[in-house]
Amino acid sequence: MKTLHALVVGAAVLALLVLAASGQLRVSRAATTFELNAVVTDVGEQIVSLTLDTSRFRLDAAGLDTGTFRVHATGLNPYRSLDPRTVTGTYDRDRVVTAVSLTPGGDILLALRSGPEVPEAFTVAHADGIGRSIALDVRYTISQRTPITTGHGRLRFDGFTQGTTADPEVDAFASGESRSGLQYRLFTPVAGVPGPRPLIVWLHGGGEGGWAEAQNNDLQLIANRGALGFTTDSAQRIFGGAYVVAPQATDFWMNDAVMGYTPRLKSLLDELVAANPVDPARVYLVGASNGGYQSLALAATYPHDFAAAVPVCPGVRRYLSDAQLAALRSTPTWIVQSRDDPVLPFADNGGYAYERIGNALLSAYDRVVWEGRAFSGHSSWIYVAHNDPVNDQGQHLYQWLAAQRANSPTTPGIAVPTAGSAGD
């Protein structure tokens, strides 16, 4: 019986080999799942590739090309209260597959065309009516155009089910909520460096705050690279390993008088310092636009508690008194703004703060251009995310920040903007 069984199995294998050689063999049709791979660019998070779960199949990379699959993407407004006509950035179109490869584990990786000029790559849009960024309802559909060669013949999938979205930089931030009711995301540095660590506080712009339908605690990380710039390997080396916290306002930081954001943020930071090995003398405030205002308001209210403040294109003249600005002389402050800012004009905001504080550093760019691409003049946080500002001593912003301690004197001097990227 064993001999007969072996003969039957052998005959079946031989038949499969003959069919495979003739091109007639079809592996049983199968379904699989896929993951969306995202990266936060200077102007928002994008889906840059898809990973198909095919590790259980013996696929031949030679049988894959950019025409094997069709990828279609929709990014829709998920909020019924928003008039669709006021939401800029939705889409319903095909994605261009630029490369196909197999991962070491045997999964198919589809690289997609992406960049600021590819609107269908984004996971965020803008709701003009409420002045907010919104997270889109992003859905992908994959269809297979041609069979794939496997170790047993050819394979055609029945269907593809969308799974999770992976963005390693964003996913490195844990979620939390303070006793004062503010949600936040917290990056914890890798272990290995002894002693207490610095804490960098990223205060988002107006578009990334929560609103009635969306207190989602993610827009402050995915709308731009402001917070993420401080978690790169380069930045972490400069700071010797730093915590980075990105709180989210429940509306606008500039609604501070009504919402009490300044004391609530101070309470949140005190909680984090108490719960983590944070050096209380090295807590740094960095904020853009609305967050630029809030960084100044915090430092002015608690003039001896923060090592430094970096207000970026901050709201100033209509929101902070001259007495508040004068109080900032106790806190090392470096202002960053473009002179062509169309949202918060330089003269009444960054320039005004620089004049009234008296001993602040200033990086005043003519316009916002990075890697040959021009951006809105309000987007000067791009320079901060890339550690571009440099002072008259040749010291870049992150290195300057890392050297500051609470109650230590600042070194006055006008900073000189540079066009290139900064080194370590």
Class per helix and strand makeup: alpha+beta
Mean pLDDT across residues: 89
- Rg to the nearest angstrom? 26 Å
- Strand content is 25-35%
Classify the helix fraction into a percent range: 10-25%
Q: Strand order of the main beta sheet, please?
A: 14-15-17-16-18-19
Q: In terms of quaternary structure, what is this?
A: single chain
Low-pLDDT windows of residues: 1-27, 408-413, 418-424
Largest sheet: 6 strands, mixed
Distance, first to last CA: 73 Å
In total, the number of strands is 23
Helix count from the secondary structure assignment: 11
Using the alpha-carbon principal axes, give the shape.
Answer: elongated
Describe this structure in words.
Helix 6 crosses helix 7 (about 290-300). This protein is elongated. The chain has eleven helices and 23 strands. Strand 6 and strand 7 (about 110) form a beta hairpin. The model is unreliable at about 1-25, about 410-415 and about 420-424 (pLDDT under 50). The protein is of the alpha+beta class. The strands form seven sheets. The chain has a six-stranded mixed sheet.
Task: Write the SSE topology.
Elements: H1 2-22, E1 30-41, E2 44-52, E3 69-76, E4 87-88, E5 91-95, E6 97-102, E7 108-112, E8 124-127, E9 132-135, E10 137-144, E11 148-150, E12 153-155, E13 157-166, H2 168-171, E14 173-177, E15 183-187, E16 197-203, H3 219-222, H4 233-239, E17 243-248, H5 256-259, H6 261-275, E18 278-288, H7 290-301, E19 308-312, H8 322-327, E20 334-338, H9 350-357, E21 361-365, E22 368-370, E23 373-375, H10 381-385, H11 397-403
Parallel strand pairs: 1-13, 16-17, 16-18, 18-19, 20-21
Antiparallel strand pairs: 1-2, 2-7, 3-5, 3-10, 4-8, 6-7, 8-9, 11-12, 14-15, 15-17, 22-23
Helix pairs in contact: 6-7
